[in-house]
Specification:
Layout (H helix, E strand, L loop, with lengths): L6 E10 L6 E5 L12 E5 L7 E11 L2 E6 L5 H5 L5 E5 L13 H4 L3 E4 L6 E10 L7 E6 L2 E6 L5 E5 L4 E4 L5 H5 L4 H6 L1
Length: about 190
C-alpha cells in the first residue's frame, strides 16, 4: 500500500446521496472520466496519517458532481460517516499529462528559481496557482512577506524538477517589482 505522502486528492465527499449508501462528491480532478477505470479509492481526512482503502462498485455523474458507491457502505448512516472525507488515489495512478504540462499539486510548494542571464536566484515558494485570470496561469509566490504573481508561461520556463520541487524560469527584468503586493508595512503607509 502506498504511503500517506504518495496520495493525491481527486474528490471530496459532501453528503449521502440516496438510501443505499451512495455519496455525493465534489470533483477535484481534471480527469473525472478516470473514475470509470478505478476499482479502489482511498478515503481519509486531512489530519489522517493514512487513508483507508475502499472498493468502488459504481459511480455516475450528477449535476457537475460524482456519486460514488462503495462496497460495505449500505445505508444513509454509513454514508454520513464518510461526509467530509477526501477521495484519494496513489500518486503513480494519476493520468499521464501531455508534454510540457504539469500538475498544479506538483507546482504548489515548489521553490521558484530565476535563471535569467547569469543569475541563479531563489525567489520563493509557490503558494498557489491562479487559473482563468489571463492568458497564462499565475504562480503565487511568497518572497520576504511579499506576494508575487508570476505568469506560468512556457517561454519563461527553463525546467521543472518534480522530484526536487524546483521550478527554474527566466523572468523578465522588472517583473517582480511590477506585480509585487504591498507588504504590511507599506500598506500602513498608504
Amino acid at each position: 500500500m502506498p504511503s500517506c505522502q504518495e496520495f493525491v486528492v481527486v474528490a471530496r465527499i459532501l453528503r449521502p446521496q440516496g438510501r443505499h449508501g451512495e455519496v455525493l462528491a465534489e470533483i477535484l480532478t481534471d480527469f473525472p472520466e478516470k473514475f470509470a477505470e478505478r476499482s479502489k479509492l482511498w478515503l481519509g481526512r486531512e489530519k489522517d496519517a493514512q487513508p483507508r482503502e475502499y472498493s468502488l462498485t459504481n459511480h455516475w455523474f450528477h449535476k457537475g458532481r460524482v456519486v460514488l458507491k462503495f462496497e460495505g457502505i449500505e445505508s444513509i448512516s454509513d454514508a454520513e460517516a464518510l461526509t467530509g472525507s477526501l477521495v484519494q488515489i496513489p500518486r503513480e495512478e494519476r493520468a499521464e499529462l501531455a508534454e510540457g504540462t504539469v500538475y498544479v499539486s506538483d507546482l504548489v510548494g515548489s521553490m521558484l528559481v530565476d535563471r535569467s542571464g547569469s543569475r541563479h536566484t531563489e525567489i520563493g515558494r509557490i503558494e498557489d496557482v491562479r487559473q482563468g485570470v489571463g492568458a497564462a496561469p499565475l504562480l503565487v509566490v511568497l518572497q520576504n512577506g511579499k506576494e508575487h504573481e508570476i505568469p506560468f508561461a512556457e517561454e519563461y520556463v527553463v525546467r521543472f524538477d518534480t522530484a526536487k520541487k524546483i521550478l527554474e524560469m527566466r523572468l523578465p527584468d522588472g517583473l517582480l517589482e511590477v506585480n509585487a503586493s504591498l507588504s504590511s508595512e507599506e500598506k500602513k503607509r498608504t
